[in-house]
Structures are given as structure tokens and as C-alpha cells.
Specification:
The chain is mainly alpha-helical. It has seven helices and four strands. The longest helix has 32 residues.
């Protein structure tokens, strides 16, 4: 499939056909699986704190060494603080749409979904799926963090990167809602969606630079976030 033929401009917005979305979904799922399994079997070395095993260690160490983190701290406090700020903003965005869905359910007098906004319901279940995925990978432990934080006796699971996945899911879903709410206001819609994309990118970049995750943790979170958003897109506007 030529994916570029499936992407077009419709009423001033970037649109992709159902066939194109299905193609991207399959590929995002495939590459996420490939990366996840590669981290368990390819070039695994005990290079993390407390000799924790890390997959694809050559590329991960090479990328980490580019930033020359201090040996005493092991990460950048500046970028870490920015990551947390962007993370709180992302959580607020998720809380907004999830809260509106819960409000709809309460006002409708039931929890069967009848009388609720279907787009809000789609966002709520997107966040539930993301949370379930994070819990699963927390216990599967594909990779450990390259840094042992103060007060911790062992490194934390770091794949996929939590803040990156949060940024992709939060601002991706917010962009869908903005496109729906401001459907008739093309200029405002574009400005607000551009702001969402900037916030998403800022969250990804700050997490990448702070040093608490390996490069493959970032890549896995982006692929998983895209996968979840593609699934979500089939139910939005349903």
C-alpha cells in the first residue's frame, strides 16, 4: 500500500482513510513487538544499576553517552523537572476528558454508557488501555532504568517510558476533541492542535534528555502510543 495516497486534505484538515489507519495500526503493532522482543534477546548486557540487564545495550549506551550525565547524579535534574511539569499538564488533559465522561455517566443516571458522549467514552477507555499496558510492562520488566534514584534499592522498570506514553496519549486524544469541538472554526482549530503537538513533542524531548530512560524506552513508548491512538481513532466519531 502507498500510504501517502491514503492521506489527504479534507476541509482544511489532515485526514487518513480507514485502510490507511489499518495499515499503520498493523505496522505500529508489528514494530512494537519486534522492539520488545529484541530488547529481551539482542545484545543484552549487565550495564544498568546493580548489574541490571539491558537489551540492545550498544545503541542504548551510545545514545546515553552523548549527554555526559554526572556520575554522582546520573541524570539531568533540569530536564527531569521539565518532564514532570509536562507530565502534570498531560495528566490534567487526560483528567479533563475522563472527568467529563464520568460527569456524563452520573447525569445520565446509569453506568451502561447510554446518554454519554461517545467520543468522551472513547477517550476514557483509551486511558484505561494505556494504564493497563503500563501495569503489564511494569511486571514483565523488559528494561530497567539506567539510574538508581535516591531512596531506591533497585532500578525501576523503564520500558515503555511512562512520560512519553502519557504525552502521546494525552495530547493525541486532546487533538481529536479539539478537531470535533472547533469543527467550524478552522483557524482556531489549527492553532490549538498545533499547541497540542508542541506539548506532545516537548514531553517526549524532555523525557529523552533527562536521562531516566534508555533510548529504546522512548521508542517503545512512541510506538505504543501511536498504536493506542490508531485503535482509538476507529472509535472516535463512532
Amino acid at each position: 500500500m502507498n500510504i501517502f495516497k491514503e492521506i489527504y486534505i479534507d476541509d482544511g484538515r489532515l485526514t487518513i482513510s480507514d485502510e490507511g489507519r489499518g495499515f499503520l495500526l498493523k505496522n505500529a503493532f508489528l514494530w512494537f513487538l519486534v522492539l520488545t522482543f529484541a530488547l529481551k534477546i539482542c545484545n543484552v548486557a549487565e550495564v544498568g544499576p546493580n548489574a541490571a540487564g539491558v537489551g540492545l545495550s550498544r545503541v542504548n549506551i551510545w545514545f546515553r553517552n552523548l549527554f555526559h550525565y554526572s556520575k554522582e547524579v546520573g541524570y539531568s535534574p533540569f530536564w527531569y523537572n521539565l518532564t514532570r511539569i509536562f507530565g502534570y499538564l498531560s495528566m490534567a488533559a487526560c483528567a479533563l476528558w475522563a472527568g467529563l465522561f464520568v460527569r456524563d455517566m452520573i447525569l445520565s443516571g446509569g453506568f451502561d454508557g447510554a446518554g454519554t458522549d461517545k467520543n468522551l467514552a472513547a477517550s476514557f477507555f483509551l486511558y484505561v488501555l494505556a494504564a493497563i499496558a503500563l501495569v503489564i510492562f511494569h511486571y514483565l520488566v523488559v528494561n530497567y532504568s539506567p539510574v538508581l534514584l535516591p531512596g531506591k534499592t533497585k532500578p525501576s522498570p523503564s520500558y515503555p517510558a511512562f512520560y512519553v506514553l502519557l504525552s502521546v496519549v494525552a495530547w493525541g486524544s486532546t487533538s481529536f476533541h479539539i478537531a470535533d469541538i472547533f469543527d467550524e472554526k478552522t483557524k482556531l482549530r489549527r492553532i490549538l492542535i498545533a499547541i497540542c503537538m508542541v506539548l506532545m513533542l516537548a514531553g517526549i524531548v524532555s523525557c529523552t534528555l533527562c536521562g531516566l530512560n534508555w533510548l529504546t524506552d522512548i521508542g517503545g513508548a512512541i510506538l505504543l502510543g501511536i498504536l493506542l491512538l490508531l485503535i482509538y481513532s476507529f472509535f472516535f466519531y463512532l
